[in-house]
């Protein structure tokens, strides 16, 4: 049986729909729509979703496990490649401890402005 051909363009399209929150208020937003937002709107969206992501009571960072896993203090002064960064939420965390961050993503439309 011949393996199915990988459809790169389909993968890019799928990864250009970013999940923005865990409550479904925003759900998945198309990266092209987000990137066209005015800077204050984008900043507000990012602040809101990052507050949810890093809340110690939410599943992603329950009891601060995600931040413990990331070992943020370990990256101070080092270079970090954040591949699959989306709009850069984790990149911001690495940069906040003094890491030099290079964001990269399959979908160029999701890279931080």
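Sequence proposed for the structure above (113 residues):
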């Amino acid at each position: 049986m011949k393996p199915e051909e990988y459809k790169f363009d389909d993968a890019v399209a799928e990864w250009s729909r970013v999940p923005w929150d865990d409550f479904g208020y925003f759900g998945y937003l198309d990266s092209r729509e987000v990137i066209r937002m005015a800077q204050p709107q984008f900043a507000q969206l990012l602040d809101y979703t990052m507050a949810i992501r890093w809340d110690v009571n939410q599943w992603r960072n329950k009891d601060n496990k995600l931040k413990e896993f990331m070992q943020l203090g370990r990256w101070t002064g080092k270079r970090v490649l954040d591949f699959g960064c989306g709009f850069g939420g984790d990149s911001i965390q690495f940069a906040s401890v003094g890491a030099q961050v290079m964001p990269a993503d399959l979908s160029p439309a999701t890279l931080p402005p």
